Amino acid sequence: MAPLLEVRGLTAAYGALTVLHQVSFEIAPGSITTLLGANGAGKTTTLRALCGLIDRQGEIRLEGRPIQRARTEDIARAGIAQVPDGRGTFQSLTVEENLQLGGISRRGARAIADDIERFYTLFPRLRERRLQQAGTLSGGEQQMLAISRALMLRPKLLLLDEPSFGLAPMITARIFEILRQVNETDGTAMLIVEQNAHLALGIADRAYVLETGEIVMSGPAAEIQADEKIRASYLGC
Ligand code: ATP
Q: In angstroms, rounded to a whole number, what is the distance separating the alpha carbons of residues 115 and 185?
């Protein structure tokens, strides 16, 4: 099957500091891929490069179409939605306004209203807090909102930067369960950047490990999860 996303020789720098060196990977349609690696390995930078938020060189293709020169808003319109670290909700807007904004580029008021209802059913806390400003939500609720808002775009590919960061294990487990559910029912492909390798390998089909800006290993997530030696050498867990 042709890949949904194909990245070849991706290089990115902050000024004179090159932090991604010829990074290549693929994401199959409808699959969950995780990008693992220690602090500073370049995971967030990879997501930023995919969304056109920093200058990058190399080839990025979405369904075969080159997007490496596209603007961030066109990349979103082409079907890539991002849940940035630090969550990225509009803090002074209400939960419901955030969800409505997520669907702003879509047509069909009925379908948008149905989707908002769907996320309220998946995350009842968001329904309870629908008229509350996003900035007043707990960390877990903000993460639920950020994910729902990104999914309101009905993306082909959802990029998530450390969705477990700073959250209690029970909340993280619930969020990951819903990600899996959305992946299964809608076929939304996901790229999850995580420092919590166990958690990410538990949900992913395929994993890539990034070390100082280079992919040093990749394979089926279940195989990496089951291989103690690989985990110890590459993931320290
Ligand atoms: P973390 O989990 O800590 O976020 P990461 O794997 O996501 O790590 P990046 O945030 O992509 O790593 O950072 C990769 C490298 O780029 C690091 O050396 C970091 O210090 C550097 N870096 C990140 N953002 C900037 C920036 N805005 N300006 C300059 N250097 C940066």
A: 13
- What is the CA(16)–ligand 1 centre distance, in A? 14
Check pocket membership of 39 for ligand 1, CB cut-off 6 A: yes
Q: What is the pLDDT of residues 46-81, one digit of tens each?
A: 999 999 999 999 999 999 999 999 999 999 999 999
Q: What phi, psi does 158 have (nearest 5°)?
A: -110, 125
Spatial distance between the Cα atoms of 98 and 212, rounded to a whole number of angstroms? 35
Strand partners for 220: 206
Q: Is the CB of 41 under 6 A from ligand 1?
A: yes
Give the atom of ligand 1 at the shortest distance from the alpha carbon of 85. Answer: 4
Name the pTM for this structure. Answer: 0.94
How many helices and strands in the chain, by DSSP H and E? Answer: 10, 10
- Confirm or reject: Cβ of 40 under 6 Å from ligand 1: yes
